[in-house]
TrEMBL record:
<keyword id="KW-0067">ATP-binding</keyword>
<protein>
    <recommendedName>
        <fullName>ATP-dependent zinc metalloprotease FtsH</fullName>
        <ecNumber>3.4.24.-</ecNumber>
    </recommendedName>
</protein>
<keyword id="KW-1003">Cell membrane</keyword>
<comment type="similarity">
    <text>Belongs to the AAA ATPase family.</text>
</comment>
<dbReference type="GO" id="GO:0008270">
    <property type="term" value="F:zinc ion binding"/>
</dbReference>
<dbReference type="GO" id="GO:0004222">
    <property type="term" value="F:metalloendopeptidase activity"/>
</dbReference>
<dbReference type="InterPro" id="IPR027417">
    <property type="entry name" value="P-loop_NTPase"/>
</dbReference>
<dbReference type="InterPro" id="IPR037219">
    <property type="entry name" value="Peptidase_M41-like"/>
</dbReference>
<dbReference type="Pfam" id="PF17862">
    <property type="entry name" value="AAA_lid_3"/>
</dbReference>
<feature type="binding site">
    <location>
        <position position="505"/>
    </location>
    <ligand>
        <name>Zn(2+)</name>
    </ligand>
</feature>
<comment type="similarity">
    <text>In the C-terminal section; belongs to the peptidase M41 family.</text>
</comment>
<keyword id="KW-0479">Metal-binding</keyword>
<keyword id="KW-0812">Transmembrane</keyword>
<feature type="binding site">
    <location>
        <position position="428"/>
    </location>
    <ligand>
        <name>Zn(2+)</name>
    </ligand>
</feature>
<keyword id="KW-0645">Protease</keyword>
<feature type="domain" description="AAA+ ATPase">
    <location>
        <begin position="199"/>
        <end position="337"/>
    </location>
</feature>
<dbReference type="InterPro" id="IPR041569">
    <property type="entry name" value="AAA_lid_3"/>
</dbReference>
Length: 606
């Protein structure tokens, strides 16, 4: 879509430039213009000229301590310093010099004031006027305030044929279905008006970052072929109290003029946070929110202005914002499932050249948990890699490598692991893979590598889910914990000591075990009582405990027990398969990267 931005530079900027020029002009140029060029000579020359009767006019400027004189034809002006000379006047008389008139004409004071001050001010005002008019024209009306203050700065996407359409947003079928109704309404509001139905004024798109919320909002505007005003919540909040509210007013005013249209407010939690009434609260933010609420109440139903807002922290929004009549419809935009991921990859693959034999389904399976933005990034990374290697198109290998880049960072080319470290890392990774593979329910291993990555990982085991997983059984979760402890278990078994390499595994295993006990009701003691609630569903899933101190102690003990049991299970699996562990670790140590197929082949060899 064509984006029309209002000019950013305030008028103040132009005014200060003109003022600066004015000052420079007065200090540097004016003195030179005012004074005629004068030749400086010594007193001896003056005396000789006087004696030779070569002086035309003369002026003794005692205050300046100088004598200014001309030659006989008055064509050249000379000046010299004064000397204590009592006979000066008589000598000058004798030379026939004339004493009348000013030789260096002081510019007429009126003219000088005119030239140095009035004229520039006139230029300054005319220029200022011209610029103001031009800016107003761009800003869309004479009522926009000076210096851009209190203006909404909303980016306006004008109708255009190549705008984003629903077909550009892959997956997210439920969200699209939900929004299709809005498109329908924007096409023909009268249909709804006739029957008396009113469209929701505000629609809240909620979901994790990078799942295409902004894209969906733009697609609604593209499909409905209406103007699209876009602004981020944080742009409203200004340093001065009241500025944000005035921006909200301006935005809605513009929107009403352009109706039917869509107003999109990204990251609405920046202004829409709960007003908690604490001392020292953010006045500016609260005023902005109040203004937004007032504006939403203010316009009647069916005016044709639809407000879409996106957030990844719906739980932090002020309840007043989500009540019916304001943002009363909520459209979840979740992370894509397997089919969604494949579709997104294919959409983005259209923008680059790829070889025909790429298995998109496999890439989508490998990238489980990736958001739309990450998938777009993966495709782009693959194209960059192809260019780096001097190829004309991206291949399956490029895509697979770029998944790893996005997940684990680039390969560290010159990271030097000592031999001992390399052996430990090899055993660690095979430990994970072996425990995963030998527990029937674990996902198959895709790839194991011990090439260090820029993220700090010294090696990793990539597992691939075969399909979508919406539910996980207790057994599957336990197996997952066992797999996570498998790396450390292998180190203990072989080297009889622990290393720091397992810190991330420990973190993940603990998190899983904790969730099983406090949230999934998978412990005998607590039955189906929630001990923790998720407070931040889309951003990392922070939780807050809701139980007594004694219960917390019990939870901690149970978490330890659970992880311990799984750790023992992993140790047992590896002890039972010690031969395979050695064989596979040696193979990995030599090859550094092995595929899941190679791994399974060795594992299944008798
Ligand atoms: P959000 O607003 O949810 O944080 P965006 O809409 O800004 O995410 O998406 C960021 C980028 O990710 C988009 O520009 C697009 O390239 C890609 N993307 C995300 N979701 C999708 C999708 N469903 N289909 C195609 N591309 C997507």
């Amino acid at each position: 879509m064509n984006e029309v931005k209002t000019p950013k530079k305030p008028l103040l900027y132009y005014y200060s430039i003109v003022l600066l020029l004015l000052i420079l002009f007065n200090f540097l140029a004016m003195p030179r213009l005012a004074e005629r060029q004068v030749k400086e000579v010594d007193y001896g020359t003056f005396m000789t000229m006087a004696e030779n009767k070569e002086i035309g006019q003369v002026e003794v400027q005692e205050s300046e301590n100088r004598i200014v004189f001309t030659n006989k034809d008055n064509t050249v002006v000379y000046k010299t310093g004064m000397m204590p000379d009592p006979d000066l006047t008589s000598r000058l008389y004798a030379s026939g010099a004339q004493f009348e008139g000013e030789i260096i004409e002081q510019a007429d004071p009126l003219v000088s004031v005119l030239v140095s001050w009035i004229l520039p001010i006139v230029i300054f005002v005319v220029l200022g006027n011209y610029l103001t008019k031009r800016m107003m024209k761009n800003a869309g009306g004479p009522n926009s305030m000076m210096f851009g203050m209190g203006k909404s700065n909303a980016k306006i996407y004008v109708k255009s044929s190549e705008g984003i359409k629903f077909s550009d947003v892959a997956g997210e079928d439920e969200a699209k279905e939900n929004l299709a109704e809005i498109v329908e309404y924007l096409h023909d509001p009268s249909k709804y008006r006739e029957i008396g139905a009113s469209m929701p004024k505000g629609i809240l798109l909620v979901g994790p970052p990078g799942t295409g919320k902004t894209m969906l909002a733009k697609a609604v505007a593209g499909e409905a072929n209406v103007p699209f005003f876009s602004m981020s919540g944080s742009e409203f909040v200004e340093m001065f109290v009241g500025m944000g509210a005035s921006k909200v007013r301006d935005l809605f005013k513009q929107a009403k003029e352009k109706a039917p249209c869509i107003v999109f407010i990204d990251e609405i939690d920046a202004i829409g946070k709960k007003r908690d009434g604490q001392l020292g609260g953010n006045d500016e933010r609260e005023q902005t929110l109040n203004q937004l609420l007032t504006e939403m109440d203010g316009f009647e139903d069916n005016t044709g202005v639809i407000i879409l807002a996106a957030t990844n922290r719906p739980e932090s929004l002020d309840p007043a914002l989500t009540r019916p009549g304001r943002f009363d419809r909520r459209v979840p935009v979740e992370l894509p499932d397997l089919a969604g991921r494949e579709a997104i990859l294919r959409v983005h693959a259209k923008k680059i050249k790829v070889s025909d034999d790429v298995d998109w389904n496999k890439i989508a399976r490998m990238a489980s948990g990736a958001s739309g933005a990450e998938l777009a990034n993966i495709v782009n990374e693959a194209a960059l890699r192809a260019v780096r290697d001097g190829r004309r198109f991206a291949t399956q290998a490029d895509l697979e490598e770029s998944i790893e880049v996005v997940i684990a960072g680039y390969q560290k080319k010159n990271a030097i692991l000592t031999d001992k470290e390399k052996v430990i890392v090899a055993y660690h990774e095979i430990g994970h893979a072996l425990v995963a593979a030998l527990q029937t329910h674990s996902a198959p291993v895709q790839k194991i590598t011990i090439v260090p990555r820029t993220s700090g990982a010294l090696g990793y085991t990539m597992q691939v889910d075969e399909g979508n997983h919406y539910l996980m059984s207790q057994e599957e979760l336990e197996n997952k914990i066992a797999t996570l402890t498998g790396g450390r278990a292998a180190e203990e078994l072989i080297f009889k000591s622990a290393s720091t390499g397992a810190s991330n595994d420990i973190e993940q295993a603990t998190k899983l075990a904790r969730a099983m006990i406090t949230r999934y009701g998978m412990s005998k003691e607590f039955d189906m009582v929630a001990m923790e609630t998720v407070t931040n569903q889309y951003l990392g899933g922070d939780t807050s405990l809701a139980c007594s101190a004694e219960t917390q102690t019990q939870i901690d003990r149970q978490v330890v027990d659970l992880v311990k049991t799984q750790h023992q299970k992993a140790l047992q699996i590896l002890t039972d398969n010690r031969k395979k562990l050695d064989e596979l670790a040696k193979y990995l140590y030599e090859k550094e990267t092995i595929t899941g197929d190679e791994f399974m082949k060795i594992l299944n060899q008798q």
